[in-house]
Specification:
This protein is mainly α. The chain contains 7 helices and 4 strands.
Length: about 140
């Protein structure tokens, strides 16, 4: 998708090359999940039904099997859930060490070029911040 964003003129060549360099490092940054999970794939506030301050349902436009951390990362892109959610989630399904420090960014970099391509350059700065945090 980064290539698509580049082809559409939404990403410049140096940024595309930085994304490619980070992609080469994926085997050292992300382990293959033991068992992929069925995830929502579009977890943001517009797809969550809340009544009286409690989540009561989800609108599910797409499902896929992936690492459950991919879903957790996406939920941080738009501030969908706060610390109470992650605390409760961690009690039900422990969040592995390194998620918030490394993998959250990496997984969000999977989603962000899609948003750059579809919605324009306003998401480029988020891509830039992730690349800088990973010294690229």
């Amino acid at each position: 998708m980064a290539r698509e964003a580049f082809d559409a003129g939404q990403l410049d060549l140096p940024m595309l090359q930085r994304i490619d360099r980070l992609a080469e490092r994926l085997p050292e940054l992300i382990d293959e999940p033991l068992l992929p999970s069925l995830i929502h794939c579009d977890m943001w506030t517009g797809n969550i039904i809340v009544i009286r301050g409690r989540i009561t349902g989800f609108i599910v436009p797409a499902l896929c099997y992936a690492d459950a951390e991919l879903e957790l990362a996406f939920s941080t892109l738009f501030g969908t859930f706060g610390q109470p959610f992650f605390k409760r989630y961690g009690k039900i399904r422990p969040i592995a060490e390194g998620f918030f420090e490394v993998r959250l960014d990496i997984y969000n970099l999977w989603y962000l070029p899609i948003h750059v391509r579809l919605f324009g350059g306003c998401y480029v700065e988020s891509v830039e911040r992730i690349l800088r945090r990973h010294s690229l």
